[in-house]
Amino acid sequence: MNAALKELLDLLDLEQIEVNIFRGRSPEERQQRVFGGQVAGQALVAAGRTVPDDRHVHSLHAYFIRPGDPSVPIVYSVERVRDGRSFTTRRVTAVQHGKTIFTLSASFQIVEDGPSHQASMPEVPEPESLPTFQERMERLFGKLDNEFLRKRPIDLRHVTPLTWEAARDPELMGPESLVWLRVAGELPDDPLLHVCLMTYASDMTLLDTVLLNHGLAWGDRRTMGASLDHAMWFHRPFRADRWLLYAQDTPNASGARGLARGQVFTQDGELVVSVVQEGLVRVTDS
What we know:
Blueprint (H helix, E strand, L loop, with lengths): L2 H10 L2 E4 L2 E4 L11 H13 L6 E10 L9 E10 L3 E10 L2 E12 L22 H9 L4 H4 L4 E5 L4 H6 L7 E8 L7 H15 L2 H5 L10 E12 L9 E11 L2 E10 L4 E13 L3
Antiparallel strand pairs: 1-2, 2-4, 3-6, 3-9, 4-5, 5-6, 7-8, 8-10, 9-12, 10-11, 11-12
């Protein structure tokens, strides 16, 4: 397990300060705002810690309300909305500086049988045959600084072009993005942990799909964006430390907002997660 993954697992191990109140922190490196996947993953940890072990999260719906301040802790307050015979509902509010920065509603269910079907997994190269994210970036920009060279908690292998590649070559633009991902190390057999790590990872590339369709890229002075809301449905058990294909597309962009969808498949072709996100995408003339 590399240091970056250990740090991420530490971030998800919230401190409980009251029955329904938890405290989380951000990485030590200073950023302008807290990464959206981090606050979503931590909020789901807080919700899950108030739910019996025989109930597993099957959906979440979240809103990013204010940018998070990475220099101070985040307090997560859990409301126990409902405890039914089959379903449990929790609402989580994340607070900094006395103001709500994020809200999440999550639903948990006991294991039940029923009809089963799924969409088909796209045909793609195996992840080990593809270059790492860092290798792709080095091809684009040459020698990278320590920020890109350092080990990362999530291993990403892009099947389709990076946004920076499409920004240089318009022929690479398109409405679909295919990315293999997995946590960079072995994890314990804790279903909630695997789900929370996928929640974290789901915010890493989804909004990029909107940029890819327009030949835009983060870091360009003309482009700015942020996650606005995020929804996930967990269909089947999976492990975040095994390769997962994140098949993403963007059906619409308008009003300075872009909509992106994702389907997550195991390497065996099982559809395990569906994701939808709307994000702010602003483009200036200068």
